[in-house]
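Example record for the data management plan.
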Amino acid sequence: MRAKAREHGIHLVATLYEEASAGIYYYTAFAIDPAGEIAGRYRKVMPGLYLSLERMYFRFGSYFNVFRLGEWKVGIVICYGTFFPEHARCSAVNGAELLIMPFAAPKIGPWREMMVTRAWENAVYFAPCNKVGHEGTGTSAGSA
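Corresponding structural encoding:
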Protein backbone atom coordinates (compact mmCIF):
# COMPACT_ATOMS: atom_id res chain seq x y z
CA MET A 1 0.00 0.00 0.00
CA ARG A 2 2.85 2.38 0.82
CA ALA A 3 4.47 1.66 -2.55
CA LYS A 4 1.17 2.29 -4.38
CA ALA A 5 0.67 5.63 -2.61
CA ARG A 6 4.21 6.64 -3.70
CA GLU A 7 3.76 5.29 -7.22
CA HIS A 8 0.54 7.23 -7.81
CA GLY A 9 1.33 10.26 -5.61
CA ILE A 10 -1.89 9.87 -3.62
CA HIS A 11 -3.19 9.73 -0.08
CA LEU A 12 -4.44 6.24 0.68
CA VAL A 13 -6.38 4.67 3.54
CA ALA A 14 -6.01 0.90 3.85
CA THR A 15 -7.44 -1.46 6.46
CA LEU A 16 -5.02 -4.17 7.51
CA TYR A 17 -4.57 -6.66 10.28
CA GLU A 18 -1.84 -5.15 12.44
CA GLU A 19 0.36 -7.27 14.69
CA ALA A 20 1.35 -4.82 17.43
CA SER A 21 3.45 -7.45 19.22
CA ALA A 22 3.56 -11.22 19.44
CA GLY A 23 -0.06 -12.44 19.58
CA ILE A 24 -1.54 -8.93 19.87
CA TYR A 25 -3.61 -8.00 16.80
CA TYR A 26 -5.71 -4.99 15.86
CA TYR A 27 -7.98 -4.30 12.93
CA THR A 28 -6.28 -1.09 11.84
CA ALA A 29 -6.78 1.52 9.15
CA PHE A 30 -3.53 3.16 8.07
CA ALA A 31 -3.49 6.56 6.38
CA ILE A 32 -0.58 6.79 3.97
CA ASP A 33 0.69 10.02 2.40
CA PRO A 34 1.94 10.50 -1.20
CA ALA A 35 5.53 9.88 -0.05
CA GLY A 36 4.45 6.45 1.21
CA GLU A 37 4.80 7.43 4.86
CA ILE A 38 2.23 6.45 7.48
CA ALA A 39 0.46 9.69 8.41
CA GLY A 40 -1.81 8.09 11.00
CA ARG A 41 -3.65 5.02 12.12
CA TYR A 42 -6.94 4.09 13.71
CA ARG A 43 -7.36 0.82 15.57
CA LYS A 44 -10.98 -0.27 15.39
CA VAL A 45 -12.58 0.54 18.73
CA MET A 46 -15.55 -1.82 18.48
CA PRO A 47 -15.12 -5.12 16.61
CA GLY A 48 -18.18 -6.21 14.67
CA LEU A 49 -20.83 -8.39 16.22
CA TYR A 50 -23.15 -9.45 13.43
CA LEU A 51 -21.86 -12.66 11.78
CA SER A 52 -18.33 -11.71 12.79
CA LEU A 53 -15.52 -13.44 14.62
CA GLU A 54 -13.52 -10.23 15.06
CA ARG A 55 -13.84 -10.30 18.85
CA MET A 56 -11.98 -13.61 18.89
CA TYR A 57 -9.00 -12.28 16.94
CA PHE A 58 -8.55 -8.58 17.61
CA ARG A 59 -7.99 -6.32 20.58
CA PHE A 60 -10.11 -3.20 20.82
CA GLY A 61 -8.52 0.13 20.01
CA SER A 62 -9.17 2.96 22.44
CA TYR A 63 -8.54 6.25 20.62
CA PHE A 64 -10.22 8.27 17.91
CA ASN A 65 -7.05 9.67 16.38
CA VAL A 66 -7.11 12.69 14.09
CA PHE A 67 -4.23 13.44 11.73
CA ARG A 68 -3.41 15.48 8.66
CA LEU A 69 -3.81 14.25 5.11
CA GLY A 70 -2.86 17.20 2.94
CA GLU A 71 -4.97 20.16 4.03
CA TRP A 72 -7.54 18.04 5.90
CA LYS A 73 -7.76 16.99 9.53
CA VAL A 74 -8.92 13.40 9.14
CA GLY A 75 -10.45 10.77 11.40
CA ILE A 76 -11.29 7.19 10.49
CA VAL A 77 -14.11 4.98 11.72
CA ILE A 78 -14.16 1.40 10.45
CA CYS A 79 -17.37 -0.34 9.37
CA TYR A 80 -19.44 -1.35 12.41
CA GLY A 81 -18.39 1.78 14.33
CA THR A 82 -20.63 3.97 12.19
CA PHE A 83 -23.69 2.39 13.79
CA PHE A 84 -22.72 4.25 16.95
CA PRO A 85 -22.96 8.05 16.84
CA GLU A 86 -20.29 8.35 19.53
CA HIS A 87 -17.53 7.20 17.16
CA ALA A 88 -18.11 10.00 14.67
CA ARG A 89 -18.70 12.48 17.51
CA CYS A 90 -15.43 11.61 19.28
CA SER A 91 -13.50 12.07 16.03
CA ALA A 92 -15.22 15.41 15.36
CA VAL A 93 -14.57 16.63 18.92
CA ASN A 94 -10.92 15.64 18.43
CA GLY A 95 -10.81 18.00 15.44
CA ALA A 96 -11.67 15.89 12.38
CA GLU A 97 -13.04 17.81 9.40
CA LEU A 98 -13.30 14.69 7.25
CA LEU A 99 -14.22 11.18 8.38
CA ILE A 100 -13.18 8.30 6.19
CA MET A 101 -15.33 5.21 6.70
CA PRO A 102 -13.97 1.97 5.17
CA PHE A 103 -16.59 -0.81 4.99
CA ALA A 104 -16.84 -4.38 3.81
CA ALA A 105 -20.56 -4.88 4.25
CA PRO A 106 -23.62 -6.05 2.36
CA LYS A 107 -26.46 -3.63 1.82
CA ILE A 108 -27.68 -2.77 5.28
CA GLY A 109 -31.04 -1.01 5.43
CA PRO A 110 -30.73 2.75 5.21
CA TRP A 111 -26.90 2.73 5.06
CA ARG A 112 -26.63 5.84 2.86
CA GLU A 113 -29.04 7.80 5.04
CA MET A 114 -27.06 6.85 8.15
CA MET A 115 -23.88 8.23 6.58
CA VAL A 116 -25.60 11.52 5.74
CA THR A 117 -26.96 11.70 9.28
CA ARG A 118 -23.51 11.15 10.85
CA ALA A 119 -22.06 13.93 8.69
CA TRP A 120 -24.92 16.29 9.58
CA GLU A 121 -24.83 15.47 13.32
CA ASN A 122 -21.15 16.40 13.49
CA ALA A 123 -20.82 19.10 10.81
CA VAL A 124 -18.04 17.16 9.06
CA TYR A 125 -17.51 15.72 5.62
CA PHE A 126 -17.85 11.96 5.26
CA ALA A 127 -16.18 9.63 2.80
CA PRO A 128 -17.81 6.20 3.23
CA CYS A 129 -16.08 3.58 1.07
CA ASN A 130 -17.64 0.13 0.82
CA LYS A 131 -16.14 -2.98 -0.71
CA VAL A 132 -17.35 -3.81 -4.21
CA GLY A 133 -18.26 -7.21 -5.63
CA HIS A 134 -18.86 -10.81 -4.60
CA GLU A 135 -17.00 -12.98 -2.11
CA GLY A 136 -18.24 -16.49 -1.37
CA THR A 137 -22.00 -16.25 -0.99
CA GLY A 138 -21.99 -12.56 -0.07
CA THR A 139 -22.26 -9.43 -2.17
CA SER A 140 -20.90 -6.14 -0.85
CA ALA A 141 -22.94 -2.99 -1.21
CA GLY A 142 -20.27 -0.74 -2.70
CA SER A 143 -20.40 0.39 -6.30
CA ALA A 144 -17.67 1.09 -8.81
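Summary line stored alongside the record: The helical segments are 2-8, 54-57, 85-93, 111-122.
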